[in-house]
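anyone seen this seq b4? input:
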Amino acid sequence: MSCGEPHETDCSEVLDHLYEFLDSEMPDIDREKFQHHFEECSPCLEKYGLEQAVKKLVKRCCGHDDVPGDLRAKVMGRIDLIRSGQSVPEHDVTASPASPAAPQES
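predicted toks r here
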C-alpha cells in the first residue's frame, strides 16, 4: 500500500513495522518518524487505525483468559535457555506425548 507520494520514511517500511509501533516496541526516534509519516500519509494512517481497532477488539474479547501456570513456566524456561545461549530442543516443549490411537473396529 502506498499513497504514491514520496515520504522521508517509505510506506513499506512503516507497514512492515506497524505492530512494533502499535506495541511501543521501537526506539522513540523511529516512533517519531512513523508518527510524522501517519500525519502526511492517509492510506498508512487508515491501515494503522484499522490494525489498532483490531488489536483493541482482540484484547477486549480475548484478553481475560488466564494462562495455565505450567505453560507459562515452560515458555519462560525456553526464553531463559535462549537468553543464556544454550541449545533449545527442536521439539515443541509445550506438546504432550502423543497417545496411541484407539483400535478401529472392522
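The helical segments are 11-16, 18-22, 28-40, 42-62, 69-84. The two ends are 57 Å apart (CA to CA). kinda curious what u guys think
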